Amino acid sequence: MTATETAPRKGTLPIRAVRIGRVSFRLNLRVVVVAAVMAAALLGAMALHVAFGGTPLPYPDVLRALLGDTTNPRTHLAVTEFRAPRMVAAVVVGASLAAAGAITQTVARNPLASPDLLGVTAGASLGAVTVLVIAGGGHAGLSGIAATVGMPAAAFAAGIVSGVAVYLLAYRRGLDSYRLVLAGLGITGLATSLTTWILTLGDVTSAAQALTWMTGSLNGKDWATVQPMAIAAVVLILAAVARGRWLLLTGFGEDTVVGLGVRIGAVRLTVLTIAVLLASIATVTAGPVAFVALASPQIARSLTAGVTPPVGVSALVGAVFVLLADTVSANALAVPLPVGVATAVLGAPFLIHLLLKYQRRLS
Fold first, then answer.
1. Angle at 236 between CA 233 and CA 240, to 5 degrees
2. What angle do CA 56, 341, 233 make, to 5 degrees?
3. What is the Cα–Cα distance from 210 to 151, expressed in whole angstroms?
4. What are 7-22's pLDDT values in tens digits?
5. The model's pTM
6. Rounded to an integer, what distance in angstroms lies between the CA atom of residue 237 and that of residue 63?
């Protein structure tokens, strides 16, 4: 293993070029430090999330229950079967949305280009709501396991179709970020309108169930729902981090990247597919949770002082964001609120801040 160090800019940590055998990579020490701090913050947020609830539990009791101690059956049941699945679901939702946002903002070279604005979340919601209304209303006789499996499958399929449609509409001899955002807004509007229309087809019970899901809620999560989503999210996020070098190249101009011998079209298609799948996983798990994909990558980019948001740090920031939002929304108020409401309340001012910031930059 060899390492060479480049001179750091004023106020920043150095960047090392590391070679291990035939593999070489750049090691940004500031990104490493920020990632370590955010990982510690994530552990603290996870402990806080599990310890708080209808009845606060001491941290030692929570740790003993997670380690398999069944001395207190009620505490063990509350921690392992109710609070831990919800905590893992919050981590999956936050990390998946933030990683998807970091990818789309880098590819589009636009800080506003999150899956929320590119139609992916709205498309996945359309697929899920369609199955919810059909199963609940009995239009197609779906029930039981067919409805349980059909909802995530429909959300995945609709999210992918929306992502492909946006990509095809935005592609004209290359991918233009301006067209990408416009196409995303168009697909978002279409999917939202179709979702509203489908809600009118169902009965009151199924429509109310679908509306509750559309606010972005982590209530009632169990291991059967959370485990497959967590495994898929970890695999996809690791794949995105491994493609970080190629993802960074998508931020350069078309001619520059082609001149370096990179098949930019294939790289963009690969990373955008990962982003669409991650956004669909989050939507299937908790419904459309707003602003996480928009705000988390920009917070990560500010902390690391980078040109583009790093995927790994963004995922950590997103997980902490959703964990804290769910802890507050579920416990701090007299009436518990869905986590999507809390992230929207926190995220809306951040969106206004971003818009004003870039308006000042343009003027």
1. 135
2. 80
3. 11
4. 555 555 556 666 766 6
5. 0.85
6. 27
| Residue 175 per-residue DSSP state | B
Q: Count of residues for the chain?
A: 363
The yes-or-no verdict on residue 225 having pLDDT over 60 is yes
Element (H, E) at 18: strand 15-20
Please check whether residue 87 is in contact with residue 320, taking contact to mean a CB–CB distance below 8 angstroms.
Answer: no
Q: Are 329 and 336 in contact (CB under 8 A)?
A: yes
Q: Give bridge partners of residue 5 from the DSSP assignment.
A: 16
How far apart are the C-alpha atoms of 344 and 363, rounded to whole Å? 28
Residues 6+ apart with CB under 8 A from 111: 105, 294, 297, 298, 354, 358
> In angstroms, rounded to a whole number, what is the distance separating the alpha carbons of residues 13 and 276?
33
Give the DSSP letter string of 224-253: HHHHHHHHHHHHHHHHHHHTHHHHHHTTS-
Helix (H) or strand (E) holding 186: helix 177-201
Separation between Cα atoms, residue 194 and residue 2, nearest integer Å? 57
CA 193, 194, 200, 202 dihedral sign is negative
**Cβ-based burial of 296 (10 A; exposed 0-12, middle 13-18, buried ≥19):** buried
Task: State the Cα–Cα distance between residues 279 and 102, nearest whole angstrom.
Answer: 11
The whole-number pLDDT of residue 5 equals: 54
Strands of the sheet containing 2-6, edge to edge, are 2-6, 15-20, 23-28
**C-alpha angle with apex 320: 108 to 34, nearest 5 degrees?**
70
Q: What is the DSSP string of 91-124?
A: HHHHHHHHHHHHHHHHHHT-TT--TTTTTHHHHH
Tens-digit pLDDT profile for residues 308-336: 899 999 999 999 999 999 998 888 777 78
Task: Give the residues across from 6 on adjacent strands.
Answer: 15
- Write out the DSSP string of 119-134: THHHHHHHHHHHHHHH
Six-digit token string for 203: 């009965």
Whose tokens are 């807004």? That residue is: 185
Residues facing 175 on adjacent strands = 171
